[in-house]
Design goal:
By secondary structure, the chain is α+β, with helices and mostly antiparallel strands. Helices cover about 25% and strands about 30% of the residues. The protein has one domain. The relative contact order is 0.21.
């Protein structure tokens, strides 16, 4: 219900999944390389497997440079029906394309796939879908956006997650030990990491493609502050952040779009919320955002949104092929028992 007497400072909306939806799939499939051009070529080959029957309902693409200096081009795909994803990844074309990827050479590949229970996720949008060209699950025609008052206060994301016991279980890991830089690049081979339960996933995005009032202010005064915050998380596993990716979004053929997103994994929802509420890097993001919207230029014409999910044990598949050891969940591989890495 939110704090007593709370009145949000701006209108926001939350996603409503199609009636009867118990879970959906968010999958990241990526190519990793020493150069942006090589990563883009590898990602283009990966992208060919998403066409045809049972392909994703929503497909976004983006690129980023990770903490080891490697270039990554990533496909971010959603399936509203997990059974459709299962049929797709078992299809001959998709299965063969992934299984035949080389385990040595100049390219690495990785995938992180999560089946997200509907009662363990939430979203927030500053705009309705028809007012922007934003990415993410809200692009799906069957997903509705409904106005919510549960926002604009600390802990609002937690209040929007339907499961009442989401704060109950302790995280399986407290933090991810950093790997020394000389351990990258990759070791070769394939590694599947068992992902602990109660990890938190956030995808948060910005779309300034339709902005005429706030574009310059956002790009010069807000976005750099946001980027510094993401860079801090990516380089500071002691914060409880497992991985943080500052992604420039692109068209399917790699042309740069006027939007960006961050995808980050945390060891728990508590770690994510603690960073948001307490750390200077997020407080600076928060302050720069409200300085912008309080500038009196008119209605906000930049779309902001995020999705936050807390995943139960067994909900995440993480596999890395010829990737450096600071990729995604790979730092966990050295902390787990031998039988959890295959």
């Amino acid at each position: 219900m939110g704090p007593p007497g709370h009145t949000p400072r701006f209108t926001a909306y939350t996603s409503r999944l199609p009636q009867g939806t118990e879970a959906f799939v968010f999958a990241q499939y990526a190519c990793q390389a020493r150069t942006a051009r090589a990563a883009a070529r590898g990602a283009a080959a990966l992208g060919e497997s998403f066409v045809g029957a049972h392909g994703p309902d929503v497909l976004d693409r983006g690129s980023f440079v990770d903490v080891a200096g490697a270039h990554n081009v990533v496909w971010m795909a959603y399936w509203v029906d997990p059974d459709a994803y299962d049929r797709w990844q078992r299809s001959e074309s998709a299965h063969t394309a992934w299984e035949q990827l080389p385990t040595h050479g100049p390219l690495g590949h990785w995938r992180e796939v999560c089946v997200i229970p509907a009662e363990r996720t939430e979203s927030l949008h500053t705009h309705r879908r028809e007012l922007c060209a934003t990415s993410g699950l809200s692009q799906h025609e069957a997903v509705e956006l409904a106005e919510t008052r549960l926002h604009d206060y600390w802990g609002a994301a937690r209040d929007r997650i339907p499961t009442p016991s989401i704060d109950g279980p302790e995280p399986s890991i407290a933090a991810v030990a950093p790997q020394p830089a000389h351990d990258a690049p990759g070791p070769g081979g394939r590694v599947s990491v068992t992902v602990p339960g109660e990890v938190a996933l956030i995808r948060t995005a910005q779309d300034w493609s339709e902005s005429t009032l706030y574009r310059e202010t956002y790009l010069t005064e807000v976005k750099p502050v946001k980027d510094r915050g993401v860079d801090y998380l990516a380089a500071t596993p002691q914060s409880g952040c497992i991985a943080a990716r500052n992604i420039a979004e692109e068209t399917a053929d790699g042309s740069l779009l006027q939007r960006a997103c961050t995808v980050a994994w945390f060891t728990s929802l508590g770690h994510l919320m603690a960073w948001c509420r307490e750390h200077r890097t997020h407080l600076e993001i928060y302050e720069s955002f409200f300085r912008m919207v309080g500038g009196g230029k008119g209605p906000l014409d930049i779309a902001f949104w995020h999705e936050v999910s807390v995943l139960p044990s067994g909900a995440v598949t993480a596999e890395y092929i010829n990737c450096h050891v600071r990729t995604g969940f790979l730092p966990l591989a050295t902390q787990q028992a031998p039988d959890t890495v295959r």
